[in-house]
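Let's do one together. I've listed all components of the complex below, 518 residues spread over two lines.
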Amino acid sequence: MPKRNKPLQPAQIEAYVRQTTQLLDLPIPPEQMADVVENFEQVHTIAQQVLEFPLPDDLEVAPRFEP
Amino acid sequence: MLASDIAQRVNGGEITAQAVVRTALDRITRQDKQLNCFTHVLTDSALAAAAVIDQKLAQGKSVGPLAGVPFAVKNLFDIAGTVTLAGSKINRDNSAATLDATAVTRLKAAGAVLVGALNMDEYAYGFVTVNHHYGTTPNPHDPTRISGGSSGGSAAAVAAGLVPLTLGSDTNGSIRVPASLCGVYGLKPTYGRLSRAGVYLFSSSLDHVGPFARSVPDLALAFASLQGPDSRDPICTDRAPASPNLSGDITGLRIAIAGEHFARGMTPTAAKALERVAKALNATSTVTLPETARARAAAYVITASEGSQLHLSRLQTRLQDFDPATRDRFVAGALIPSSWYLQAQRFRRWYRDQVRQIFNTVDLVLAPTTPCSAPLREQTTMELEGESVLIRPHLGVYTQPLSFIGLPVLSVPVQLPGELPMGVQLIARPYHENIIFQAAAVLEQSGITGC
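Okay, and this is what the predicted structure of the assembly comes out as:
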């Protein structure tokens, strides 16, 4: 059973956003940072529902790539 | 005039394609300042195409089942010679498309005449058609309200009678939500049924295209013309096209109402519209699609991740040229870890398998399209079952889980006395659009739905 991630503090989310935007070479102006953090908090919350759901190891995605 | 009436009269020589197209262009010129549906009107090429149709008919040649029907497309469909904006300022710097999108080519081949491109949310990321660069497309039934999105221009242009037929795209509900709020028919076929070649994508795993119209026969005509394999779209099916059955006979069809997730959080008007449709189709039993809230969450993760990856280079270099309504959501989506995305994709397969089993016991499922009728433009929250909810994301609550697994869905318009229009979703198993058309014909013929 996958473990539900512990709720993160806003400062932890902000730290992740700052580091990952740097990694992606995605400069965020200081005045926009709060909105980006808020949006990522929403994504984080929504994603938990998906992450906590147990799936068997043999369940693969259904890609449509045909060589 | 309906598309089928136009085509019949043009093919029968009662009226010329040029007269029809000129009338449509005049209507657009007169009314679109208020309606703000069009971002581009193709006056010259439309009149030239109409003249060719008239010439062919005069020579006794066949023109097609949509002869002389004016149509328009969401501005993410390529139109040869025109820049594909996809609702953005950034794309204005792109070169003009050199080829029409396959869907545009196919409607033209059926005799329809392209008259312009239509407003949308930037890069299709929204349910409102409130666009920072190209303005808001108000609801034709009440301009103080939104038309829905992201294909808001496509739904509103049909609702206002500017053209009888338009095309839109649907990733999480972008055909069905505006169809519901504007009171028109909007079809999101099976994932892969219609070619998306030449369409500016948003989230490839979930992107569909489909038509809007004012009647079921019009929608069926368009759907029939749009089908067929296309090597330019890697997910477009090679299956035989569906032939919509409009006989009005639903004998033997097993029809049920979607319960739980789809039965919660709607206004009394939405509930009444669903009840009316269910009664007309003798649907009394309910079915439960399991883990539907989770399916919606997974669709959100996939959309945000794929959409943001598509736009990453533009986010890096032209962040301030994005619509403020989409910008921060795109940035947040770019930060999603790959494990979240892959879990959502694996969950998609799990959910699909569960829903496939349900369709062993039923042929058609009914659900509301939107939880409410068109909200006011400035309205941000609404009261539902005693709770305050944010309207904009909530508009897709019933549509998003269904496009997630590519089911074919038609939003049919219900007009209750004294109320704004409201859509109801007719949902079938993959590649069974025929069943949807059978039921839709019954609803239209009995006066339950209509524009």
